[in-house]
Every structure is written in C-alpha cells, then in structure tokens.
C-alpha cells in the first residue's frame, strides 16, 4: 500500500466518523473497512402494502400501512490496499424492504459512481446517493408494494451484463424485470418472509417515532413548562401532549373519585381517552388495580347479557344465555334465577314475575 493511499483511507474514515454518529457509521477493527447504515427520509403519509395475490398466504395482504420510517440500508465495505488510486472498495448492500433486483440496481450505480470518482475517495458520495436519491432512482412512490426475491437468485451474480447496460427496476411504478439476469451477489435482501418483513417495518417505525418524540421539546398546557418528550405523554387519537407529572396527578384524582371512564384528554372538548397501558405507566400499582377493577365493572354494567353471582362471597360476572333465566357461576357453581337472584327454581313461578302479574 502506498503512503498516499493509506493516508487517503485514514482521512476518509476519520471524516466519516466525524460526520455520522455511531449508529450510522462504524469502523471495522480488524480490517480497513466498516459498516454504514443509511436511513432514508420518507415523504409524508408514505404507505406500504403487500399484494393480495402474493405467493405467501398473508393475513394482512391487501392492507396499507402508513409509516414515517423504514429500516436502514446497510453498506458493508472493505478498502483494498490500492484504494483509491486504482481499485474501488469491495462491498455488500443489504436491505429488508427492497427486492434483490432493486438492490442490484443500486449496486450498479455505486459502481458507476466509482468510475466517475476513480482515483478519489468515494464512500461519502455513495452514502449521499443512497440516502438522498434511492427513492427517486428506483422510482419508488407511495403506496409502495413490498416484495420478496428468490433466495437462489439472490446468490447469483448478474449474468454477463455489459458495464454499459442500464438495469431495469421499479418501485410501486416500475416495470417487471427478469430477476434471473439482474441479481447481483453483493445485493442481499435480509429478511425471512413477507410476514416477518411487515412486522419488522412496523416495529422499527414505532421505535423510531418514539425515539424522535423523546428527543423533542413540548409545552405542557397544564403546567405551561417546556419538557423533553421523554418526560411527556401524548393521547393516541388527538396527539395532544402533556408532561407525565401533570397527567399522573390528573389520573390519580379521577381514579380515586371512581371516574375511570373520564380519563379524557385535558384539552377542552377533546374526546380522546387514555389507554390502560398509559394509565399503568403513570400511576402506582395499587391505584391501577382499582382503575382496572372499576373499568371492568363499568363495562360489564353496560352489557345486557351479564349478571352477577348473588352470593355475597362471590359476586363474579356470569354470562346469561339469551331467553334463559338461569345463571350458573363458573367460580362457585351456584345456579340462580337471573330475575329474583335466588336459587334457581326451574318451572316454579318466580317471585319477581309473579309480583308484576
């Protein structure tokens, strides 16, 4: 390795480490190389879906999901001794949500960028292209259909493709291409199945949204203090944000007063209601148990087909069969009349109905 190449490599890796955080760029310890994670910026209201005629039998086929974040593309690279004077970096490009054909098209363009920058460092240009131009280059628009490529095809290199051959590819608006001829061995779709892919995307999107929320400042309209999102909570339906300390006091007062159906958003006339999970996160265990019990009680009281075991030591809810006046407690096995609440009397006249007559 020439001293010029070594110096250029060291300077490039040092520059990348200063530009990107530890999650986006990591230098390899044993070799001259590293790993970059490229997080794409999606348009607002970006949607993904799986076609109903997919090869896999998916429960959520045909459903669209609106997301804000997609899992990153991962570029692993190793710098040869004569880079950048003569040889390009060797690399693999992996992603969960792009097909092998689309990943291969990106690999091809990275090769073209090297040809344009031959003799100069190229990693930053690669990363900028992947981050800023991937969606446009692959013609990906919303709604975007998720697809899986054949694992056998993924392992194959492009079949004697000419360096000047333009790869055909497509996102939601792209054309169909024979994947036998365009799959690059450096392109890896790192996912087991479409079912697992959808779940991974949704989990990643949720985690990233929480991460972004926690790092922002919000004004609580109860105490009028600015606090980090990590100290706040928002109502899922309306997205109104309040600090956890204020909501904790608000929830505790309502629960102690028995108003478990009134844990609404404090914003005037807002109908949003706190979820049980949000309540559990803020209040003490004993108070949440009271909330849970009262919420179940109030819900059961609204159900016409639910009665309660009349035994004072039991009082558990019992489902009542339509048109039947007999209830049997699943806990104590007490059989009772659902009208008079006494021991079931069969065809004998009921005191309640007899009194009405």
Automatic annotation (TrEMBL):
Its main location: cytoplasm. It is an enzyme of class 2 (transferase). The keyword Nucleus applies. Belongs to the RBR family. RNF14 subfamily. This is E3 ubiquitin-protein ligase RNF14. It comes from Lynx pardinus. Keywords: Cytoplasm, Metal-binding, Nucleus, Repeat, Transcription, Transcription regulation, Transferase, Ubl conjugation pathway, Zinc, Zinc-finger. Transmembrane segments: none annotated. The keyword ATP-binding does not apply. Residues 216-357, 220-265 form the RING-type domain. Its EC number is 2.3.2.31. It comes from the Eukaryota. Pathway: Protein modification; protein ubiquitination. GO terms for cellular component: cytoplasm; nucleus. Gene3D superfamilies: 2.20.25.20, Ubiquitin Conjugating Enzyme, Zinc/RING finger domain, C3HC4 (zinc finger). Residues 11-137 form the RWD domain.
């Amino acid at each position: 390795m020439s001293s010029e190449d070594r110096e250029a490599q060291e300077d490039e890796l040092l520059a990348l480490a200063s530009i990107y955080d530890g999650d986006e760029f990591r230098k390899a310890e044993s070799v001259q190389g590293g790993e970059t994670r490229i997080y794409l910026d999606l348009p607002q209201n970006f949607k993904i879906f799986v076609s109903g005629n997919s090869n896999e039998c998916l429960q959520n086929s045909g459903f669209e999901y609106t997301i804000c974040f997609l899992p990153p593309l991962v570029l692993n690279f190793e710098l040869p001794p004569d880079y950048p004077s003569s040889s390009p970096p060797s690399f693999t490009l992996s992603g969960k949500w792009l097909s092998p054909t689309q990943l291969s098209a990106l690999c091809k363009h990275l090769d073209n960028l090297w040809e344009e920058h031959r003799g100069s460092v190229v990693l930053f240009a690669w990363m900028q292209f992947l981050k800023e131009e991937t969606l446009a280059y692959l013609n990906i628009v919303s709604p975007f259909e998720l697809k899986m490529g054949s694992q056998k095809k993924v392992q194959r290199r492009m079949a004697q493709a000419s360096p000047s051959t333009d790869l055909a590819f497509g996102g939601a608006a792209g054309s169909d291409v024979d994947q036998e001829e365009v799959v690059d061995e450096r392109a890896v779709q790192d996912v087991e199945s479409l079912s697992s892919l959808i779940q991974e995307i949704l989990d990643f999107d949720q985690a990233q949204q929480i991460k972004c929320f926690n790092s922002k400042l919000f004004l609580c309209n109860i105490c009028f203090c600015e606090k980090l999102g990590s100290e706040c909570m928002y109502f899922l339906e309306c997205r109104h944000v309040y600090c956890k300390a204020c909501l904790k006091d608000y929830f505790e007062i309502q629960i102690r007063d028995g108003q478990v159906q009134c844990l609404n958003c404090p914003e005037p006339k807002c109908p949003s209601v706190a979820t049980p999970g949000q309540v559990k996160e803020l209040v003490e265990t004993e108070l949440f148990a009271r909330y849970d019990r009262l919420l179940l009680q109030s819900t059961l009281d609204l159900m016409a087909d639910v009665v309660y075991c009349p035994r004072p030591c039991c009082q558990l809810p019992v489902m009542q069969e339509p048109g039947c006046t007999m209830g049997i407690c699943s806990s104590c096995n007490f059989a009772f009349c659902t009208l008079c609440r006494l021991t079931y009397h069969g065809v004998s006249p009921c005191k309640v109905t007899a009194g009405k007559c």
